[in-house]
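User: Quick one: structure for sequence A, then sequence B.

Assistant: Sequence A:
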Amino acid sequence: MRTPEIVFDEVSKFYGEVLGVNRVTLNIPPGITSLVGPNGSGKTTLMNLMAGLIHPDRGTITVRGLSPKDPERLMRVTGYATQYDAAPRGATGFDFVSTGLMLYGYSRVEAAERAWKALDQVSLTGAANRKVAAYSKGMRQRVRLAHAFAHDPEVLVLDEPLNGLDPLVRAETIALFRGWAAEGRHVILSSHVLDEVDVISDQVILIANGMIIAEGQIRNVRDEIHEHPSQFIIRSPGAARIASMLFELDHVTQVKLQDDRLGLLVMTRNRQEFSRALTRIALGGCGIESVIAADENVDALYEYLIGGSR
């Protein structure tokens, strides 16, 4: 019986002298796992390694007990949707999905049945006979997703799968992911959006410079993130005065006055104490126009997780 985990054991991948990933060790259980990191962090390399499109220079990988070096067996249990348009020029949505299924050995009749089912699940039956080249960005995203899951794989590897989707289709797509996870499948997503990860994921892997920064259940990783300084942007006509007051607080690690002298970038080790301090400052007569958390996106998160070097 095949083990249900995806396992990376000391995996490294280089592109000539350029590092893709370095000494990655992971044990990913079934469920929804998000790979989070800025561009160039190594997310796509990890996904290509899982799908068997590239092979590690060092270390070993098993995907539910299968080696990526056994591509014929691996392709039957994995579905991969990249960010890039993969449909042949002139192909309709139905052609794209059904032709892909025939490559898995399905007959034309079986492929047609599965293609219509997959297209229905992503709400594309009405556009199935239109050329993919004429689809909107969101429609192209959905047809790539249908192409990836139409053969009923155990592992879905999906690169930024929610980009370009309107709110209704986005909610339907997330429901699909949750349904697959409930069936014991792997759903591996890449994302730049922390709020999105928080809502969707059972577990998260933070990656930068080809190395794993943190991984595990979303609550545990969030706790780990909270151990690092948080960033806030304050807008106020009295920004310089506020800066001098914040400098005196032990939990504030950095205060930077912006060029217009109306904004501050502040780093603090204690969000609650920082909030109390701002309240005291505001009650003391300093007008504060806005306070915005600056670490609600992945790039800002990495600024303080790895000191700004990527």
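Sequence B:
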Amino acid sequence: MSQVKQKADALLTEAYEKYNTQLIKFCYTKLLEDKTVADDIAQEAMLVYYKRMLKGEEFEKPLAFLYQTAHNLCKNANKKATKQAMRTVPLENATDVAAQEENSRASELDYDEIKEKLLEKLSEQELMLYQLKYVENRSLKEISEMMDISPNAVAKRTQRLRSVIKELVEPTLSIYEGRYS
């Protein structure tokens, strides 16, 4: 067995043991809680990592590479799921479904739905930071390693993210409170 393959096998085993669980959790939150697909994508990210190591590539920060790869794979899976969902409703029924949905949502606002709508307005980097900081409760040091930036940059981006979220939440909150007061 070649030295490159032996090294790649050892590094893959190490990465799997260290990072697989948190990679699955990351994918799980990105895929709107689809556990099976999250597990598949985490394994696919590991496979990409392994193949690149077999080609002789070395990674100073394997977790950052795995997170970025998983992020891209999740993005592709979400696009594919959206396209699939768009094909399931006949066009002539789409306006009826949309009108019914709008009327029911106006009378039954749900915190989780509002949160999802607001999160859709964040950029990919902001959403990734939000997931790592507020969903997974990662430290600045962990996030800096995963995103391959300094802890100070993470702190500054977190501060900016809070401002963006505040700007998004305030108008929505006033609408939400107005309907329930």
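Confidence is low (pLDDT under 50) at residues 91-95, 102-107. The CA atoms of residues 161 and 167 lie 10 Å apart.

User: Thanks, that's what I needed.
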